[in-house]
Amino acid sequence: MCAPMFGTHKLGVESTARASFYFYNTKAEVDRFVEVVKEI
Questions:
Q1: Residue 21 region, left (φ>0) first, then alpha (ψ -120 to 50), else beta?
Q2: Residue ranges per domain, the chain?
């Protein structure tokens, strides 16, 4: 089951998001992502 369907149907939330990392992401981008997620 895909992430949006799982979140919407099983967890009862209206929307979901997914982050994907790969070799082209910089450490600064990953660090920024972590900072923002901590604020949620």
A1: beta
A2: 3-39
